Amino acid sequence: MLDIIYREFVYISYYFEIQLRQILGWYVFGIIVGSVISVFMKGSILRAMEKIGNHTDNLLSIVLASLLGIASPLCMYGTIPIASSLSKGGIKDSSLSAFMMSSILLNPQLIAYSFALEETVVAIRLISCTLCGIAAGLLVRAYGKPLLSFGSIEGRKSRDTDPNAFLKLLKNIGRNIKATGPYFLVGILLSALFQRYVPQEFVGKLFGDNEGFGVLLAATVGVPLYACGGGTIPLLQSWLSDGMSLGSATAFMITGPATKITNLGALKVVLKGRLFLFYLLFVIVFSLISGLVVDLIF
């Protein structure tokens, strides 16, 4: 019995080491990119948001707001106070919705992580998340009534206050590693377990052969499995190599962050009643359509 346990431990350790070597460099790169943008460029991004969204409500402002949401390094709990300040400054709900939606789905750090996957996957992720933010903004604009309720939420104070720029960057990197490191290691462990115990043919049939069902299943699996963007990269890398379709990966990459429990908790503060349910419906429908379109193209 002990021999069997030891053998399995060796196998899992072997897969874990392989995944770690493949992903670690991209993880470190992502941490540095995210921290540099957070420390030195966050203010510029928010000022740009104020310029493009202030008292305007057109397609261009929505598109630019979605792109700025992706460029923003903030988590959703950090984005909500910023969005509250922008709303009180006169920025329309359509631009704010685009900014918040794309900010939920993607950020510079996660883009850097995603380069551990195929370049095609990175491009698909970037385009689909941008379009999701634009779609959210356009729907809010079409609705024509205020949807976001920030109440008395105040702007969040920056934690990057050290007068020494280098120390400020190091402290931000440390907080980033502390927040994402455990999820990253858990993701690698799950990937190692999948490689050891789940046959490659099973993953291919589940997420690849039957593309419509695979997309639906990936969108569903993204809800409970997604805890941290960096932690899901090893899983996606393993699944894609085992035959997961690009459409299924796309659906997973949209529903996962959009239904992450911390993001939902933050959004519930500003989306009241049925609006919260409409948000969930929008995410599911958009992820399914995106996945099916990607599979048709590729």
In words, what does this structure look like?
The chain has 298 residues and is mainly α. It has one domain (12-145, 163-297). 81% of the residues lie in helices and 0% in strands. It has 14 helices and no strands. Helix 5 (93-105) packs antiparallel against helix 7. The mean pLDDT is 79.
Count of DSSP helices?
14
Secondary structure class reads mainly alpha
What's the domain count? 1
Point out poorly predicted stretches.
none
The general outline is globular
The major sheet is characterized as: none
* Mean pLDDT figure: 79
Number of strands: 0
Strand content: under 5%
Question: What structural keywords apply?
Answer:
298 residues; mainly alpha
Topology:
Elements: H1 2-40, H2 42-53, H3 59-71, H4 76-88, H5 93-105, H6 108-114, H7 119-143, H8 165-197, H9 200-209, H10 211-225, H11 229-241, H12 246-258, H13 261-270, H14 274-297
Helix pairs in contact: 1-6, 1-8, 2-3, 3-5, 3-7, 4-5, 5-7, 7-12, 7-14, 8-11, 9-10, 10-12, 10-14, 12-14
